[in-house]
Amino acid sequence: MKPSQGSFASTATGETVWLGFTEWGERRMERVAICAHGLTRQGRDFDQLAQALLGDYRVICPDVAGRGRSGWLSQKEDYHYGTYLKHAKDLLAYRGLGAVDWIGTSMGGLIGMLLAAEEDSPIRRLVLNDVGPFIPKQALERIGQYVGEELVFPNLQAVDEHFRKIYASYGDLSDSEWSAMVLHSVERQPNHTYTLHLDPAIGDAFRKNPLQDIDMWAIWDKIECPVLVLRGETSDVLLRETAQEMTRRGPKAKLVEIPGCGHAPSLMVDDQIAIVRDWLHSWVERDKAEEEAARARAEAEAAADGRQNG
């Protein structure tokens, strides 16, 4: 099945920016999953996962502002989580979605955490891919070494080599998976070179301000929905002790550690996809059982009323 491409205008920051998304499945599907990507990535990273979820969901994979098919912000200081949260809400409003399940890698997971912590949150279930309420400064410093670089590549092979270096911690990906990441991440220039679909200004926060540990435990403790946490075995972003603490407080997440990768598991390989799909499917089946029980109760009450009136 081929996805459709959509976009909508947001004025959340005072300027108008067009935000793109990839949508899988038929609009008649009531259950919707949102897949939100990492800091320097874009929504097509979730192609394999989205297709695996189609039995239960319509899947929407947004490109966060400054990435992929979305527009770049003219006010560069607006590249922060407050903006991304507003844009996420605008996407839900644009599609008329009152309830969703949210799958977020790294930055996308933090956006999901912020939304899930709100009162009357639209998020029913949350999957966090290698991110949590505490991120050590050292991990941010590592990311800051490459995020926001203005790179020009002579050919696609050079992009491939660059990705295999900076995303080596994704784990063992096939050549076709690396190739797909490359093709969805670049723009061919008139002089036949290639640049990334990425506003370099998203790295300003790493360059202009002293980096500190990120501590969002107060946010975590407000989350009430079920949460699945995936942790790359050697991740420096989601430390093992942080992940374990996430199972003991707040929503008391289910934790699965993914061997052979760091930050972050790609969610492109079958075993990782199965973990997410099966966990979400168990909740879908629970929803269906509750809906069926509610229908049965309603029918029984209607029948009882009919007998009394008769």
UniProtKB/TrEMBL annotation:
Membrane-spanning residues: none
Gene3D superfamilies referenced in this protein's UniProt entry, alphabetically: alpha/beta hydrolase
AB hydrolase-1 domain segment(s): 34-267
Pfam families: Abhydrolase_6
Coiled-coil segments on the chain, per record: none
InterPro entries xref list: AB_hydrolase_1 (IPR000073), AB_hydrolase_fold (IPR029058), Carboxylesterase_BioH (IPR050228)
Descriptive protein name: AB hydrolase-1 domain-containing protein
